[in-house]
Design a protein that fits this description.
Shape of chain C: flat
Number of helices of chain A: 20
Largest interface: B-C, 103 and 103 residues
Largest sheet of chain A: 3 strands, antiparallel
Helix content of chain A: 40-55%
CATH superfamily of the largest domain in chain A: Periplasmic binding protein-like II
Distance between the termini of chain C: 50 Å
Chains: A mainly alpha, B mainly alpha, C mainly alpha
Largest sheet of chain C: none
CATH architecture of the largest domain in chain A: 3-Layer(aba) Sandwich
CATH class of the largest domain in chain A: Alpha Beta
Distance between the termini of chain A: 24 Å
Structural class of chain C: mainly alpha
Number of domains of chain A: 2
Order of helices and strands of chain A: HEHEHEHHHEEHHHEEHHHEHEEHHHHHHH
Order of helices and strands of chain C: HHHHHHHHHHHHHH
Structural class of chain A: mainly alpha
Number of helices of chain C: 14
Number of strands of chain A: 10
Oligomer: heterotrimer
């Protein structure tokens, strides 16, 4: 660690010199997560910044599944490959020793932290791995919502059929139990009827990306946090041993196996929304990055997408009144390279000086000004339904812990757990026991537990 | 003083530099793998390494996921072995017949699967062969009114699909070795068999197969080592899924070491693979020498 | 009663039928890639549609070149593979020659060692190298990736070449010694020309192995050093993967074309190289 501090000091000195060197020699490199915000950087902001300042910005878009491992190779290897990296609160533990404290830069360049909602500051700018520091700037914080086909839900034949079967009106599900029933109701084979028309292909009630590893984990952990579980309590005692975890896993397995398309097991993130766009899905869990897909002009779903918060888990441990996903999406941190100061100046220029343009191009809402901007709120016709829902989603989200072990014990642990329950390799009890044991062991190794 | 041109001295001069380099380049990572495997090494804190003794190994053996990976690896390896030997023999027999024209041309084309990049082969099989609705396999099965399973998404069929895809890649080697061996068997042997009244099947079974024994052993060991450590093909075909149905030890080691950032565990899984292969190598070399002696 | 001649004809037809089926099976996966790469593929289509190029386009290739940054990864692949070939030859040709000269227990010990190294699972090298390179400052570099390749190539190449050198009669060199050759002359001018085809076979096989390698690249290559095998996986998964399999196919075709051309053009060498060692210990 000592060596590391020395290195930082040397870098700071180097940075001081570097910033006086000719500006056109500087190239900033940024590892990006695929999505509209990455395209905005590469296609618009980077060229514009170079035009204005002569400083070249290279945004490298890495595949979602490789991004963390690739950044880890470079960060742990101290290669100075990238000056800026994609920040996900759940990954931060891996990068914590290699990332710059932004606090001095924030003061020096007058970056307004209060432009972000408190929630976003807590989740995406600070971390318990580096107390008292700002370690990243938010780009697109995100949390998922439930989307449904409003035209099918309001179709009289569907309403009558649903009422006949379940004895209540067909409505957007308020609880996870209702979600399962409605999803089952809409899961139909080709040749059956839907909203008065014969189906050419199979129809599915609900989906999310359920691909091995990151897909199924993200999907399940959203349900898991909705049960009020948080992984561990203040004294690092795991709470994932609670029976409600197994209930959630069995529920999730049943929902995914019986109402989602089989192909969902190949999907990593947004792929299923293409099926929603094409009119083959009645409902889906949607991250905001996907809203452009489901509302694609000319698509079967365009104009008929209904937005709502995730349903509530009845009897959840935290007293939530709506589904409570983790606050995901990301931000940008700055590696300890000689270009750190220039990198921050660029980010401030993009995120603060051009905040409305950033919101417009990235199709994401992260700053208070974004939500307040009349221009942004009316940019797309569907924003009038989508935005209020997104704001409501942000009312109840789980802020992930920044400990270095998060990736292994919570994310990796959830991957093992749901993979084994879903596949039937282990019973929920066995998988849960394993998870609790691994978490306990990791916390003991880290010295959090005796 | 020994003559520098004496065969032996000459030999060492040429051998030594390469030998030193090879030993270094291979044994350093191997020793480090063992070192990491007896330590607690997390990627996110890898300056803090604590000695654990054999704890990682004990954890692995008790972990149902490790046992599962071992089982999947064994099934995968055996499946590839049986398929590539049987198919290799069959095709080599057909090809070595005197009735076949342009034999070198056939052989050249049969080699293609062997050189196709395994990652790409995995992609080709995944999207165009096993795909449920439009994949070649289900389309062909459909003609005969067969079932149309989701090959790569069902636990039972995914492993079969992985074995078939990987054997596709390995069988050319078997064809080549068997074919080369069969062309060296003098025709008189067949003719001798015929005059003794043996049918073609009998001469195959009693004359040809025993002669191919060392070649079968050779092919077996190449297929076993290759299938046992296979990563690329399975990675792009199924990514180890569904569930853990195709998670072989190589993938499991990656999963623990890099994805889960537990390098101590990852290295102990990898090192256990090395130990298994070392035993296999020892058995092979012993048996192989014995077979060769037997032949002579 | 069928005449022997008809019987032989029938047999010939049957055999060609079997071989034809096997040929189709062998080339179908790469053929499907080729077909899909030249079709516009917004949705999955049936194999027949693809093979008949019903929706012909070259758009997939331009996508692979631009968005897929093909030439960037291609450059890394070429550099790593060529360097691997050169270094492997420089190291292994003399080494195998030397090994074929020594005798007795030393010979069996060394050849046992070389053979044993061929059994090492790649992952047991890749994982420790990841950490080791961090300490050595080689993390993510092309040189580090190359070193890992050499750890596989050197035992393989030496083992393969011994067979070629062993087949050169010792009398040849004895004659050379009488003519006053130095040890170097004996190696370079007398023996090496005899095993030329073995060296060519080796160069080709090592190139193909390096070109096709994926595991080391995934574990060790930083994004400046990544070869084509990693470049192509950038299209797998990710948001639009479902609709992009035409681009993936085009990329695949570009990746495998060089090795397939090799396999067909240098067929003779590959055959001899792959069967070398089949009948010795």
């Amino acid at each position: 660690m000592k060596l590391h501090t020395l290195r930082l000091a040397a870098l700071a000195a180097a940075a001081a010199f570097a910033s006086q060197a000719a500006a056109q020699d500087i190239t900033l490199r940024w590892a990006l997560h695929p999505g509209a915000e990455a395209d905005a950087v590469v296609d618009y902001f980077a060229p514009k910044y170079e035009e204005e300042t002569g400083i070249k910005v290279i945004g490298e878009i890495l595949p979602a599944a490789q991004l963390r491992d690739q950044m880890a190779i470079e960060a742990i290897g101290d290669t100075d490959r990238w000056d800026m990296g994609y920040h996900s609160p759940g990954w931060f533990g891996t990068f914590a020793p290699h990332v710059l404290d932004l606090t001095p830069l924030i003061e020096k360049h007058g970056f307004d932290v209060n432009a972000y909602p408190d929630l976003v500051i807590n989740s995406h700018m600070t971390s318990s791995a580096r107390e008292g520091e700002y370690i990243a700037l938010p780009t697109p914080p995100a949390a998922p919502m439930l989307i449904h086909r409003a035209d099918w839900f309001s179709h009289p034949e569907e309403q009558a059929a649903f009422e006949k079967e379940f004895g209540r009106a067909l409505e957007v599900p308020k609880t996870f139990k209702e979600l399962r029933e409605v999803a089952g109701f809409f899961t139909r084979d080709a040749g059956e009827m839907l909203a008065g028309q014969e189906l050419e292909r199979d129809l599915y009630g609900w989906t999310d990306a359920l691909g091995a590893g990151v897909g199924i984990t993200r999907s399940f952990i959203v349900v898991l946090y909705s049960t009020g579980v948080s992984g561990w309590d203040d004294s690092f005692q795991p709470d994932i041993g609670h029976p409600i975890v197994n209930e959630a896993a069995e529920y999730f397995t049943d929902l995914a196996k019986n109402t989602a398309p089989r192909e969902a097991q190949n999907w990593g993130f947004l792929e299923g929304l293409e099926m929603f766009r094409d009119g083959r899905l009645a409902m889906a869990t949607m991250w905001p990055q996907g809203v452009g897909i489901v509302e694609t002009e000319g698509g079967d779903a365009a104009g008929n997408v209904g937005y709502s918060t995730l349903p509530v888990w009845e009897g959840n441990l935290a007293g939530f009144t709506q589904g409570t996903p983790f606050l995901g999406g990301g931000g940008v941190f700055i590696f300890d390279t000689p270009n750190a100061d220039e990198a921050f100046k660029f980010l401030k220029w993009m995120l603060q000086d051009n905040e409305v343009e950033w919101g417009k191009r990235s199709l994401q809402f992260s700053r208070k000004a974004h939500f307040q901007s009349e221009e942004l709120r009316t940019l797309r016709p569907f924003y009038k339904d989508y935005l209020p829902t997104f704001e409501q989603v942000l009312q109840s989200v789980f802020i992930r812990q920044g400990i270095p072990e998060y990736g292994a014990v919570m994310w990796g642990g959830a991957t093992d757990y749901i993979t084994d329950v879903y596949s039937g390799d282990l019973t929920p009890e066995q998988a849960q026991e394993r998870w609790v044991a691994n978490m306990t062991e990791a916390f003991k190794a880290a010295g959090y537990l005796e | 003083m020994a003559d520098p041109r004496s065969r032996f001295t000459r030999g060492w001069w040429f051998l030594a530099p390469g030998l030193v380099l090879m030993t270094l380049i291979v044994s350093v990572p191997l020793l480090m793998a063992f070192r990491y495997s007896v330590h607690r090494v997390f990627l996110y804190r890898f300056d803090e390494q604590t000695f654990l003794g054999l704890a990682n190994y004990l954890r692995a053996i008790r972990d149902p996921l490790y046992v599962n990976a071992l089982k999947v690896t064994t099934l995968f390896t055996l499946g590839c072995l049986v398929l590539s030997i049987v198919l290799g023999l069959l095709v080599a027999f057909a090809l070595s017949s005197r009735e076949v024209r342009l034999r070198p041309a056939w052989l050249a084309l049969f080699l293609i699967p062997f050189v196709v990049t395994p990652v790409v082969a995995g992609i080709a099989w995944r999207f165009f062969m096993w795909q449920q609705e439009f994949g070649v396999i289900n389309q062909v099965l459909g003609v005969f009114g067969g079932p149309d399973p989701y090959w790569l998404l069902e636990r039972e069929t995914a492993l079969i699909a992985a074995i078939v895809s990987n054997s596709w890649h390995l069988t050319p080697l078997a064809i080549l070795v068997f074919y080369a061996a069969l062309t060296t068997i003098p025709d008189e042997l067949f003719d001798a068999g015929k005059t003794d009244g043996a049918g073609p099947m009998q001469s195959l079974w009693y004359i040809v197969l025993p002669m191919l024994r060392p070649h079968m052993l050779f092919v077996s060991i190449i297929v076993i080592t290759s299938a046992f450590r296979e990563f690329d093909m399975i990675w792009s075909l199924t990514g180890g899924g569904p569930g853990r149905a195709t998670t072989v030890l190589s993938i499991f080691a990656y999963d623990r070491g890099i994805a889960n950032q537990d390098m101590g565990m990852g290295n102990s899984i990898a090192f256990s693979m090395f130990v298994i292969m070392a035993v296999a190598a020892w058995i092979y070399i012993t048996v192989y020498r014995r077979v060769l002696e037997h032949e002579e | 009663m069928i005449s022997p001649r008809t019987k032989r004809r029938l047999l010939a037809v049957l055999l060609h039928g079997v071989l034809g089926l096997w040929l189709i099976y062998s080339i179908l996966p790469p053929l499907m890639l080729l077909a899909a790469s030249f079709n516009s593929t917004a949705l999955f289509r049936s194999p027949l549609d693809l093979l008949l190029f019903r929706e012909f386009t070259t758009e997939n290739f331009s996508q692979a070149f631009t968005r897929g940054a093909f030439w960037f990864f291609f450059r890394n692949s070429v550099i790593i593979s060529s360097a691997a070939v050169v270094i492997t030859l420089v190291v292994c040709v003399p080494m195998a020659y030397g090994l074929s000269k020594i005798t007795g227990r030393a010979r069996s010990a060394v050849s046992f060692g070389v053979l044993a190294m061929r059994f090492i699972p790649y992952v047991v090298l890749a994982l420790p190298l990841f950490l080791l390179y961090v300490n050595l400052g080689l993390a993510g570099s092309r040189a580090g990736l190359l070193l890992a390749h050499l750890a596989i190539h050197i035992p393989f190449a030496t083992w393969m070449l011994i067979g070629y050198f062993d087949s050169v009669p010792e009398e040849l060199e004895q004659a050379g010694i009488i003519d006053g050759c130095t040890p170097w002359n004996l190696f370079w001018d007398v023996t090496l020309p005899v095993v030329r085809s073995g060296v060519i076979a080796l160069a080709i096989l090592v190139f193909v192995m390096s070109w096709n390698e994926y595991l080391f690249a995934l574990f060790l290559a930083g994004s400046d050093a990544q070869p084509l095998t990693v470049g192509i996986t950038r299209f797998l998964g990710g948001a639009e993967a479902g609709a992009e399999y035409g681009v993936i196919a085009a990329y695949s075709v570009l990746v495998i074309s060089p090795v397939i051309v090799f396999a067909l053009a240098a067929n003779r060498y590959i055959v001899s190289g792959m069967t070398a060692g089949a009948v010795k210990g």
